[in-house]
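cron nightly-structures :: item 1 of 1
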Amino acid sequence: MFGPPHRHGTRLAKRRAKAAITLQRFSRTALRRARRLAEIDPITLAAVEPPLFLHVDADTGQETCFGAVILAQYITESGDFRNPRTRAELTRADLLRLQRASGHPVFAEMERSEARRKARQEREDLLQWLESEAVEQSDAVVAFLRRGRGSLFRLSAHLLPMLAGAVERVRALDPSRAQDLCGRAGRAIEGVSGEGRGALREICAQHVRSMSGRVAAGRCLDEIGPLPPLPPPENLFALLLDRTQ
C-alpha cells in the first residue's frame, strides 16, 4: 500500500497550479491590452495611445477605450464631461480613474467648467427675461398706434422711453440681440395701418431707427433726444383729443 503523499510534493503542485493560473491571467491581460492598443481612439481617430482609459456604460455595458491623456484634455477643454462616443455621463469614479491615469487635474477643471456653465445659464436666463420686457414695451407702442388715438405726451414721455430703456438693458449684455429687438419693433410699427396714423407711426419708426443706429455704434440709448414735433392735426377734434388724453 502507498503511504500518504509527501507534503513537499503537495506544496510544489499547488505552487505550480497557482503559477499556471497567474500565467493564464497575465496572458489574457496582455492579449486584451494588445487588442486595446489596436483599437481606434474615438477622439483622434488614430490608434489609442497609452496610458489607456476604459469606460464602461453603466446602462448598456458598452466599452469604449480612449487614450487617457487625450480624453482628459478633450473633456477639460470642451467642458463636456461625457463619453464622446456614447454621450454617457462620466461618473465621479470614472473621473477619478481618469485623473490618476492621465495626471491631469480633471476635478479642478470640472469645478471651473461647472462655474462657467452656471454663469452662462444665469446670463441667458436674465437676457431672456429682459428680452420679454422689451417685446412687451414694443407691443404697447404698437397697441397705441392701432387704437388710432391717444396723447402724444403719453407716447413721448412714457411708451417710447420705456421701450428704449428695455432695449438698453439688453444692449448692455448683448448688442446683437438688442439689434434684433430693434428690427422686430421696427417691422411691427411699420405694419400698423389705418387712416390718421401715418404721422405717429413715422415718429415711432424714426425713434426705433435711432435706437438701432445707436446700438450699432455701441452708444447708450438713454441719450436719445426728444421726439420730433407732431405735424398739426387735420381738424379741431383731433387737436382737442390729443390735449385731453
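cron nightly-structures :: done
The chain has eight helices and two strands.
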